[in-house]
């Protein structure tokens, strides 16, 4: 006989009938009745009106009946809070039952009755149960504390239950320890500030012991808790890792992932050159691969986490690309994730296989998957330079299939390939143009238009092609309209004679017939640019574009580090920090990777409070300011990051201000460059950490290198700083920087290599013999081609010509001649850079007008042609600072 | 930390049974689950974790049921999925089949189990053998004898009860290796590995200490023994009962086994294996008229061995009709609902080669939709043989009563995920 019969009563007056049965004298009848009530509850009928009758059945020695009544209570107590009090007595009594199963059942159910009123009655029974002789009752009571805390946190604290929980961590029974840890972790999640778990080495040791003995779930609670611990030094980190590593062999995938989390976190603390570090990395790979033979949902969680791990430590899985090859019967979410990881692991060594796979996927039927596969081919081309050609030919093959969405996706990625490798694959443009008509998606249309515009000079009928798009201009999406506008302007600048009409047409469509403000604005900008200064227009529109970077979809490093701390959790599945999707977690402390303290133990482990980018990640050198902005807006305000330098004052100048704070934290050092006579000195402050330096490398446009090794012979203590003067010369390797006066410095110490960059005031590169012969000056000035000339306004300079001249002379900018034309002072000046480049300038000063006009040109014999205009302007900016003060 | 509530739904999204563990997610949220799922499926964005507002549904599907956990926290997703699969395992062991009917037929036990398996979102005792000692389907029995918590529940040995008795003490060891192969259309093996599994059927009295000896290469290197063939296992996973630290230290596999059947361990071997049954296929499609299929199967294993119950599944276009077959052995069958030809060979000796030809008609009006290109899949079983060469060297059984017990070993190699891509 099955339970399904309980679902079948469907007569009128059912509740009434049940009421009668619940009050029947016979025990068996009552039990049957309760089952019927529960069945009704299960199918969603409201049986709350039977509350008193059901509670009456609570006093029974039949365990099954008791469980059913408890189940009923949990469901309806909240809607009948007053009557729920009736149950309190039974609970208190059951908590003292000789049978531990009943004691545990009572304490478990008690916590699930979320009625504030009755909680206070439950404190005493709970206190007893926490000290019960039976571990089954204690482990249940431990969880009950967390339940109670959720209902009334204050009461739990006042009653000292948190201390009782902490005591249970030392319990002799591993299940009790595990549940106590789970309960404390849960409570501390809503208590951001309290260090409830009190993780100290003694407690950690207890947890590690329990780890070997408790159930698989208990192991997960303990591992998750361990991952929040910050070991005080590498030795402790290593010893914890050693005891956690065996968990990687557990059959339960969640145990494995939690162990991986602990290990990934503590890896941060281990010295990279130690044997153990290498061994541990090797041990991580096989279990991660094995997770992929689990159920699809488990695979999915594993893949999302592997995606993070591959970004954080690519070396772990770099040999394993084959396991990410897609199987025909993988669910789509597994396929897409595998594809993503394949691209991340693609390298020169495996690219042939990867491409063969991607080509295979691109012929499947699932449109989304196919698109992603095509996109992946493009990403491979951009990532693995050696494979670009193969990728392009694979894409061409795919275009030949004429499958509409494949063609469109291929064109989009080919545009990106063009942007990465300009002037290399233009021969395929003809093939692309053949497919023009089949493009119906905005992305693909825009990509094609961009290609036509960018390479207009090589496409004979570029004007016709673009014109064909123009016909339905207003039906296009904004993206296509904007691209089309730019493309036609490019075309015009390249072939002005034949395309005047076309450009006027598009400008008027964009500015007069469109409601879209972006389109209109861009239209007007082009229009004015073209009508006022075609030369500048050319420079702006056709300027060389920065190459696109290899990996565009990397997770930002601090977020990545945070996500590594959440391996296995929803955050790692969504690739979002918990506070982005958990309500009320904004005040919660964000997790971060532990920070290596270095080899010198200071006795007291420094608590880091600042942002916590991992130290052993090479820091990205930031580009200095928005170059395009400068180009368009020729305002000569002091450039970012270069504080005004008084040319008279020769003391040390801190060039970076707080600029480094954003680079490295805790910040290891600050640089300053100063100029004392003809020698350049670098001053180095070390702070916070430790450092025995191994080497020190400079890279800059002017070949600056230190001529002596860095005279730091003893390791620095944390927070110690010293000043060092370092003579420099300009005989080092030259590497063109952007901006020109950027100096990149790499410092290597036992931990890692640190990279910094700072701007050197350009004027220190002006040499003393920069004074040009008058005659030479005259000839040179005349010969400077127009495109080598720039003109600036210098604002708010209240100095007369002589003072300016004097100040500039102090910076090795020499006045060759001075003329007075129509009341204006004209200063003709020259300067020479350490690399032999001459720069000539004409400064026009109108007395009473604080704005000067400066015209500068670079010398012919060592032309600045090689540099893009933007570089020149940054050269002059520095020059002009002298003038401004 | 993990689930706020757990639901079992039927395919229409109706709640069959549920348990609210934490009370921090509105139980009515579940009504949104199935519509969201269907919507995602339609958009091709299906995912095992569905979000609505701040509620997350983590779900799995089993026969005609959805098992769903809800949460509004940053839960341990790996734990939730592992737990949902554990639910399936426990329910299946209790009710033989887990499906809509068995849930309804046993709702009282299901409630009891849900109460015992998880508390406030923390999974508790999930070993069904132990659970069966104090949660039984015969409620009446419970009153008398079994209303005590088995000490096993909280013991360090939480998977085996004391006082088990057998007249004859035996343990059966099955070593099963599954071959996973992915072969490209041009015949190159893209990836291959072996997933091995050692299963026990333990019929031993008392609390026996067992030690399993394998020809494990790492162990051989450790102990300096180098004679005999050894096997390098890439990754090993153990049942809860195996002492992991011990294995980590000296590669000893020591444990107190669960009673009855269990999977003791699994391992993965990465070595490149020759596909045991090699398939060459030519599928020629003549539009609007016919498809001709030629499949050649070759047994690439020892002559002495025989592969049993070989099934070679070859995909055919969905609009194919009027099948004709010719086989050199076994028989071929057209399964139109799966668009497959299944070629069955009862016994396939090593080194032999067989051929199958199939001919299908195609309609003159073809459907334009591009069809998927499923691979050819192969199923087989080769007894008395492991590809990796893994061997059970010994199984030591020590029990304090000192009885003699016999270990029996059996080896099987079988196909796992065995796919060969085709050209058309």
Automatic annotation (TrEMBL), chain A:
GO annotation, cellular component aspect: clathrin adaptor complex; cytoplasmic vesicle; endomembrane system
Subcellular location: Endomembrane system
SMART domains for the chain: ARM, B2-adapt-app_C
UniProt similarity note: Belongs to the adaptor complexes large subunit family.
Protein keywords: Membrane, Protein transport, Transport
Membrane topology of the entry: Peripheral membrane protein
Identification of the protein by name: Adaptor related protein complex 2 subunit beta 1
GO biological process: intracellular protein transport; vesicle-mediated transport
Residue ranges of domain Beta-adaptin appendage C-terminal subdomain in the record: 766-872
Automatic annotation (TrEMBL), chain B:
Keyword Nucleotide-binding: no
Example of a GO biological process term: intracellular protein transport
Main location group: membrane
InterPro entries: Adaptor_comp_med_subunit, AP2_Mu_C_sf, AP_mu_sigma_su, Clathrin_mu, Clathrin_mu_CS, Longin-like_dom_sf, MHD
Domain MHD intervals: 168-421
Keyword Metal-binding: no
Coiled coil: none
Top-level taxon of the source organism: Eukaryota
Keyword tags: Cytoplasmic vesicle, Golgi apparatus, Membrane, Phosphoprotein, Protein transport, Transport
Membrane topology: Peripheral membrane protein
CDD domains (alphabetical): AP1_Mu_N
Subcellular localization: Cytoplasmic vesicle, Clathrin-coated vesicle membrane; Golgi apparatus
PROSITE patterns: CLAT_ADAPTOR_M_1, MHD
GO annotations of cellular component type: clathrin adaptor complex; clathrin-coated vesicle membrane; trans-Golgi network
UniProt-listed Pfam families: Adap_comp_sub, Clat_adaptor_s
Family statement drawn from the similarity comment of this UniProt entry: Belongs to the adaptor complexes medium subunit family.
Role, per record: Subunit of clathrin-associated adaptor protein complex 1 that plays a role in protein sorting in the trans-Golgi network (TGN) and endosomes. The AP complexes mediate the recruitment of clathrin to membranes and the recognition of sorting signals within the cytosolic tails of transmembrane cargo molecules.
PANTHER family: AP COMPLEX SUBUNIT MU (PTHR10529)
Protein name: AP-1 complex subunit mu-2
Species: Scleropages formosus (Asian bonytongue)
